[in-house]
């Protein structure tokens, strides 16, 4: 297993195959030790009504294993979902880095990506207002490289020593363990108002970025400044980005909350289904590069993780593509046991002195030691590098490898001093020789102390609807904060970002609006808004609502057009099973009003049906009204049109009524509306 082989996109899968069990199908049940069993439902007892006997090794083994099935969940990012895939560069990145997996286009490197929420427990929901983790393990020929990213490019704090504080503050409060997976409570906002470096991150957290539509439709950011080093030893500062090919999209807050009840697995299901259907999610890798000589050329410190590098000032160069194309076989073995670490680097990629990054370099191994039960977690199949690995680390709980040989120390003569270290020319990792000097102090540079300018930049860059969502998010979160003093402190803090914004929510949360404040930042960064992100009908989900006696000709035309445009359709009715059209055509309903709210879909087409009763009509009206208030495209014909008109909602944008045009034209217009995604200009109240 541990031999040198050319790495390609299949390398990790082939390695995992060595550890996969056969399916249980048709097999005889045995103990863990291979003994065939004759009985699995009755314990061994002394007589039919007597006590259970200690001798019952099968009972003991089965129960003991069960008792020990759980491992500690991750202290943050506990709820996650993952998939396998591959990565390739578009052009050689040789001018910037010697990392071998970034040298040649067409060379494919296997990857494993775990997406996550940050705050909630493992059994919480997929759609809270929260940052999302986006951690990628590249299995390269030089060892594993981990890009452990989030979907928000900045962080709450500048120094990792404060991480336990922010996490304690945002997690459920310790005296009553409430609320789950939510920042909307006193301790979090108390912490925010006492730690003003969080301002920029809070703007992102209150924005649509914190309620993504899908893992397939969110950006990823390495957050920290890293270094790329080329063969000549020249370094560049770099920030890493993932750009989803489908664009960056979000849902609305009311939808997010309802989805939490209707389908807490909404985002993992979306990823799982997309991969199973062959709609492989794709993300382009982007680099922002700053020359070493320009380290101090910006009005922020490039080592400060609460700052972005505005894309208009430092463009993102798209250098490669990652495709996720295979679901996991077993969530525990892969998604739960995968262990990421920002310190897993390869030659050509190095760190900077960002104080948040430095703290992470300690924390990730430390946490795995507890979570995965000891120092051998690198041997768990999902964590193993695909290249060979040799050293003198030995033993410990759960050791898998049978290391041969007598010698387990360095230097040695007995084994010719092997395993030996090698220089850079042979692939040995040499840390970048940055010159550092200074006194031992606990202090932060002045250049880290502007906490508000970029928060204002973010606000300035939002569209009108995005601004409204941010204001509503502040209102929601702060309305749940019981202490009026904390609410006022937050208002006073965000007055520093924008008086316009803070005034818009201050009175609604029983606080005194600011009289003055704001920064002198007037510029905006269009890249921060989701307004201009790519939009496509591909993989959008549309509910086609029909009752008995639906109009077969129209419905079939619409289904055909949607499907050929790459839209996913779902037939929905008041019951499961075959529904007959007025022309005797048949469609099978696999979704119902009861099981799937309108929130499960991106757009709705209601045809109705001649035989629809009043209960169907009531349900359809509620379904439509809800989708309408979420700004979704709606197409209506036949009874559907009448029901909707009865609610006086017909003239708003994004509502398509089938009048006398051809159903082909109607269907094409609907696809166009689906491509627009949401109609924010619609008046919903
Ligand atoms: Fe993490 N973080 N983090 N983090 N983080 C963990 O590691 C930590 C930070 C991120 O899917 C933990 O294995 C510290 C920034 C992701 O398995 C832990 C600090 C970013 C994941 C930890 C940070 C991240 C984690 C918990 C501040 C975006 C999930 C379990 C110094 C760039 C990885 C684990 C997965 C997980 C510590 C800040 C992203 C405790 C101390 C900034 C995506 O080690």
UniProtKB/TrEMBL annotation:
Keywords: Heme, Hydrogen peroxide, Iron, Metal-binding, Oxidoreductase, Peroxidase. It catalyses: 2 H2O2 = O2 + 2 H2O. It comes from the Bacteria. The active site is at residues 77, 150. InterPro entries: Catalase, Catalase_AS, Catalase_clade2, Catalase_clade2_helical, Catalase_core, Catalase_haem_BS, Catalase_immune_responsive, Catalase_large_C. Its cofactor is heme. PROSITE patterns: CATALASE_1, CATALASE_2, CATALASE_3. This is Catalase. It comes from Alkalihalobacillus alcalophilus ATCC 27647 = CGMCC 1.3604. The lineage of its organism: Bacteria, Bacillati, Bacillota, Bacilli, Bacillales.
């Amino acid at each position: 297993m541990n031999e040198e082989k050319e790495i390609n996109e299949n390398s990790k899968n082939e390695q995992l195959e060595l550890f996969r069990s056969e399916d249980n199908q048709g097999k005889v049940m045995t103990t863990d030790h291979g003994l065939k069993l004759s009985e699995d439902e009755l314990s061994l007892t002394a007589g039919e009504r007597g006590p259970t006997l200690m001798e019952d090794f099968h009972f003991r083994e089965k129960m003991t294993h069960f008792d020990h099935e759980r491992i500690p969940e991750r202290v943050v990012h506990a709820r996650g979902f993952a998939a396998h895939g591959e990565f390739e560069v578009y052009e050689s990145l040789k001018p910037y880095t010697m990392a071998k997996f970034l040298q040649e286009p067409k060379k494919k490197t296997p990857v494993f990506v775990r997406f996550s929420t940050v705050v909630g427990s493992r059994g919480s929901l997929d759609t809270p207002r929260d940052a999302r983790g986006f951690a990628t393990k590249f299995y390269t020929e030089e060892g594993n490289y981990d890009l452990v990213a989030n979907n928000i490019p900045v962080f709450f704090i500048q120094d990792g020593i404060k991480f336990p504080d922010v996490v304690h503050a945002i997690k459920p409060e310790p005296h009553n363990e409430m609320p789950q997976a939510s920042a909307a409570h006193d301790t979090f906002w108390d912490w925010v108002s006492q730690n003003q470096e969080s301002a920029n991150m809070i703007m992102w957290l209150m924005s649509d970025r914190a309620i993504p539509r899908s893992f397939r439709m969110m950006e990823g950011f390495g957050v920290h400044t890293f270094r790329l080093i080329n063969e000549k030893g020249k370094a560049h500062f770099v920030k890493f980005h993932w750009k989803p090919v489908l664009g960056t999209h979000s849902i609305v807050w009311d939808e997010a909350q309802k989805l939490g009840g209707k389908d807490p697995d909404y985002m993992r299901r979306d990823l799982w289904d997309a991969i199973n259907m062959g709609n492989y999610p794709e993300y382009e890798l982007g680099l922002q590069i700053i020359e070493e000589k320009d380290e101090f050329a910006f009005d922020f410190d490039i080592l400060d993780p609460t700052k972005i590098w505005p894309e208009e000032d430092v463009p993102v160069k798209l250098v490669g593509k990652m495709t996720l194309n295979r679901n996991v076989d077993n969530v525990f073995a892969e998604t739960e046991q995968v262990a990421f670490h920002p310190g897993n680097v390869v030659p050509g990629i190095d760190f900077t002195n960002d104080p948040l990054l430095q703290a992470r370099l300690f924390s990730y191994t430390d946490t795995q030691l507890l979570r995965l039960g000891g120092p051998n977690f690198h041997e768990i199949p999902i964590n193993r590098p695909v290249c060979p690995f040799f050293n003198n680390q030995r033993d410990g709980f759960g050791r898998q490898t049978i290391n041969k040989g007598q010698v387990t120390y360095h230097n040695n003569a007995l084994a010719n001093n092997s395993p030996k270290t090698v220089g850079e020319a042979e692939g040995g990792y040499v840390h970048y020789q940055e010159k550092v000097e200074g006194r031992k102090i606990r202090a932060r540079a002045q250049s880290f102390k502007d906490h508000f300018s970029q928060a204002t930049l973010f606000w300035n860059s939002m569209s009108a609807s995005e601004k409204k969502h941010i204001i509503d998010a502040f209102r929601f979160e702060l309305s749940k904060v019981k202490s009026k003093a904390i609410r006022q402190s937050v208002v006073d803090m965000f007055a520093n970002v924008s008086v316009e914004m803070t005034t818009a929510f201050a009175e609604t949360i029983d606080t005194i609006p600011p009289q003055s404040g704001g920064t002198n930042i007037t510029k905006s960064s269009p890249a921060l808004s989701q307004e201009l992100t790519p939009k496509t009908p591909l993989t959008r989900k549309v509910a086609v609502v029909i009752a008995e006696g639906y109009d077969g000709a129209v419905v079939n035309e619409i289904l055909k057009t949607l499907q050929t445009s790459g839209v996913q359709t779902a037939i929905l009715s008041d019951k499961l099973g075959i529904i007959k059209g007025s022309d005797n055509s048949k469609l099978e309903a696999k979704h119902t009003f009861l099981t799937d709210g309108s929130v499960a879909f991106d757009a709705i087409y209601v045809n109705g049906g001649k035989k629809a009763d009043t209960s169907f009509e009531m349900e359809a009206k509620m379904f439509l009204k809800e989708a309408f208030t979420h700004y979704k495209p709606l197409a209506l014909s036949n009874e559907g049109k009448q029901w909707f008109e009865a609610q006086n909602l017909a003239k708003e944008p994004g509502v398509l009524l089938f009048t006398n045009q051809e159903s082909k034209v109607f269907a094409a217009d609907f696809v166009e509306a689906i491509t627009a995604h949401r109609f924010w200009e619609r008046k919903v109240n």
